[in-house]
Automatic annotation (TrEMBL):
It comes from Nocardioides eburneiflavus. The chain crosses the membrane at residues 20-41, 48-67, 79-102. Keywords: Membrane, Transmembrane, Transmembrane helix. The keyword Membrane applies. It comes from the Bacteria. This is Uncharacterized protein.
Length: 122
């Protein structure tokens, strides 16, 4: 979501739209690549840290963009574009995934079915 939304329009105005690739969208794209790398890492704690960094960037940059526009022009003449919404939503989902990774207990490898579930006939 974040990698795709980084290149979509972030701001729609009466004159036209502003693509995320012209500014802060590149930062969120780089963070999305870090999040993708974190999904491929076999170490759970490292993946959780990468997911947290990804989520922080993917939430902070769109929020900063909206706050910056609100201080410049208020709500007159612009609306958030689909890219901004996708990046923010992806950041929230990434934060949820990071929280689950930090909370999840480490799993152990199973060697097969347990003997307690077998019934023995004599």
């Amino acid at each position: 979501m974040v990698a795709f939304g980084s290149f979509l329009p972030w701001i729609d105005t009466a004159v036209g739209s502003v693509s995320g690739a012209r500014g802060a969208g590149l930062w969120t794209f780089y963070a999305a690549m870090l999040g993708l790398a974190g999904a491929l890492v076999p170490m759970r704690r490292l993946a959780a840290v990468q997911a947290a960094v990804f989520a922080a960037v993917a939430v902070a940059v769109p929020v900063w963009q909206v706050v910056h526009l609100l201080t410049l022009v208020g709500m007159n003449g612009w609306v958030p574009g689909p890219g901004l919404v996708l990046v923010l939503g992806g950041g929230v989902l990434g934060g949820s995934a990071a929280a689950q990774l930090f909370r999840a207990p480490a799993t152990t490898m199973s060697t097969g079915p347990s003997t307690s579930s077998r019934t023995r006939r004599d």
